[in-house]
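For the sake of transparency, this paper describes our internal protein records without simplification. Because each token names a local backbone shape, the row as a whole describes the fold. One such record is reproduced below, unchanged from the form in which we store it:
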Amino acid sequence: MEQPQDMVLSLLAFGAAHSVNAVEKKFTDRKKGIEQANQLGRALKVHMPDWFETTGDSYFKHVNRTTIELAVAEARGSEAELSVRAAAKKSEAVTIADRLVAGTGWIPAPVRIACAEAEQEPKSESIAEDEQFPQAAE
């Protein structure tokens, strides 16, 4: 308690950070934990694109082609999706998606902080729930 206020707040933040688990898994029943993490993110005004950039290495290499196509369509539109679809190999699709999404600030659903209204209503993500965490293909 004799520490300066900024040190006490840093220690409290450290302790609080270790009590929050916002890891979203494909099959989970921890919906309340995710909701609480989203509430905390909104209260702290966390802007996830400041902390995560969607790239080939951070995302596209780890999902299947369909998910890559849907992500590019969401970020840049259906014409951009066709560029990814035309790629002969997944590695080419990853490179194209990386280039198309760069600088847009688009981030995948698993790292988005849901808005308050989205938590009240059933989710209608543009990427199907079963496609959010697909296994890498090819």
